[in-house]
Amino acid sequence: MTSPLPAPHTPSLDLGGRTALVTGAAGGIGRACALRLAAAGARVRAVDRDAPGLDALAERASALAGSIEPLVLDLTDLDAAERAAAGTDVLVNNAGLQLVRPIEEFPPKVFHTVLTVMLEAPFRLIRGALPHMYDRRWGRIVNISSVHGLRASAYKSAYVAAKHGLEGLSKTTALEGAPHGVTSNCVNPGYVRTPLVEAQLADQARAHGISEERVLSEVLLKDSALKRLLEPEEVAEAVAYLCGPQASFVTGASLVLDGGWTAH
Ligand code: NAD
After folding, report:
1. What's the mean pLDDT in 51-72?
2. pLDDT above 90 covers what percent of the chain?
3. Which of 1, 14, 85, 109 has the least C-beta neighbours within 10 A?
4. DSSP result, 56-80
5. 191 given a catalytic annotation
């Protein structure tokens, strides 16, 4: 029997001729994923509600093997989200938002928005993408979950609920997609160096009257064995791995990049 791998020790990713859709592509992790997939030759549909952020991303595309097509879209428009996913071979569900508040003070409207953007939109995007993937008998769905898809933290009810739901959606997609050549997986980062997290560092340093380094190691990374932030590009490499031939048997999995956080 021949190996499904192209050749031993050839970890490069070739997505020439493939279309990818990345949500939340104007920001930290999504932007890194869009650039990584375009570098691998994909035509990337970069979706976000942040138009200037998408323009800045598109400016980087000329140096890449593939291309980046910005699509300004608010993912709470679920019908538009489903339509946007038609014809994609690779789908990266990444867009997200966070509100930290005790449950009794958590605004129900925000809870609803978080679940809409981070769980219902991924469902609709998957729904929109699968017919083409099934036709081509190949597809890669990567859901950017979190350590919070596997563990809870106080005051993050909507985020933790959405990420746990995303884990279930991803596994169900894996079961349904398997006979059609479609894999579905989650990537589960710990804290990633994005503008959001860097702002949190500065805020907490001010609030606690300690240095940003101490906030990092004693507050944010208290449970992480490795005391550094993950870089968005490292998350993008995990996404690239899951899109490549080396990962064709990996489906329904959760690839944890948490510096040992969940090893406790
Ligand atoms: P980010 O805030 O830098 O980027 C999120 C992007 O999503 C933004 O560009 C934003 O405009 C977009 N977005 C939000 N709501 C939208 C909507 N309604 N319609 C369209 N676009 C919308 O965040 P990030 O840190 O890069 O996070 C990306 C993903 O990674 C999220 O799902 C997040 O939960 C997950 N994650 C982040 C971290 C971290 O430490 N930063 C850790 C684990 C998981």
Report:
1. 94
2. 83
3. 1
4. HHHHGGGGSSSEEEEEE--TT-HHH
5. no
Crossing angle between the packed helical segments 51-59 and 28-39, to the nearest 10 degrees: 30
Residue 205: per-residue pLDDT: 85
Please tell me the distance from the alpha carbon of residue 148 to that of residue 117, in angstroms, as a whole number. Answer: 16
Please report which confidence band the pLDDT of residue 77 belongs to, taking 50, 70 and 90 as the band edges. Answer: very high
Query: Residue 65 gets which letter from DSSP?
Result: S
| 94 CA to centre of ligand 1 in angstroms | 6
Give the pLDDT confidence of 138-167 residue by residue, as tens digits.
999 999 999 999 999 999 999 999 999 999
Where residue 13 falls (left for φ over 0; alpha for ψ -120 to 50; beta otherwise) is beta
CA-nearest residue for atom 12, ligand 1, is 24
Residues of the chain by 3-state class (helix, strand, coil), percent to 5: 50, 15, 35
Confidence of residue 9 (pLDDT cuts 50, 70, 90): low
Counting ligand 1 atoms within 8 A of each CB, the residue from 54, 109, 194 with the most, and so the one to mutate, is 194
Residue 140 and residue 257: Cα distance in Å, rounded? 19
pLDDT at position 170, please? 99
> What residues does ligand 1 touch, defined as CB less than 6 Å away?
24, 26-30, 48-50, 53, 74-76, 94-97, 117, 144, 146, 189, 191-192, 194-197
Fold of 19-191+231-248: Rossmann fold (3.40.50)
pLDDT digits (tens, 9 = 90+) for 21-43: 999 999 999 999 999 999 999 99
Adjacent-strand bridge partners of 185: 142
